[in-house]
Amino acid sequence: EYNLDHLIQYDLPCIIKSITKIANSDQLIYIGHSQGTTQFFASMDIHPDLHNKIRAFIGLGPVISLMGLHNHSLIKIMDKTRLCELLKMVGFKTLLIIPNWMSKLIGMLIYNCWFYFHGFYLIVTGLCGKNSTQDKINLKRFGVIISHEPGGSSITNVLHWIQMYRNNGILTKFDYGKKKNLEIYGSEDPPAYTFD
pTM of the entire structure? Predict the structure, then answer.
C-alpha cells in the first residue's frame, strides 16, 4: 500500500540515517535514478535536518514533473482505462514484480532468441519512446538490462505517478479522494510538493 509519500517521508530519511550510522560517517554521497531523484528532492524539502548529511548528490534521469509526457501512449492507456484503480479494486498489491529466476531466464532468452530480443526491444521503445532510446541502449548488454528491469512497485505507488500525470505533471501528495483528503490534508485537494 505504499506510495511515493511514504518513500519521501519515511524510507529515504531512514536509509540516509542508517547508512551514515553503519559507515560511521557524518555524510554520504547520494546517487539516485529516476524515482530515487524524486524522493531525494522532495525529502530534502520536508526534512531540512538531512541537508547536512549529504556531501554530494548525483541525479541520473531526474524526475520532478511529468509535464512532457502528455502524449506517452502507455501512460495515456493506464489513465483512460483506470488500470491501477481496477487492479487495486480486485486485490492486486504490486505491479511488475517478477521472480528472480524469471528475470534471469528472460535475460538468457534475449541473448539466444531473435524473437525475444526484438519483442522486448519493442516493449522498451513503447515504454520509453523510440526517439528516447535510439542509439542510447547498448544492445550487446540488452539482456542484462532487461534481466534487472522492471523493478516493480506497489499498485498504489504506480497510481501516485498516474495521478501526477492527471494533475498536469505536478507532483502532489497522494489523492485519496475529496473526503479523505479533507481529513488528512485539511483540503479537498492534495498539496503539491515544493522543490525549494
Answer: 0.77
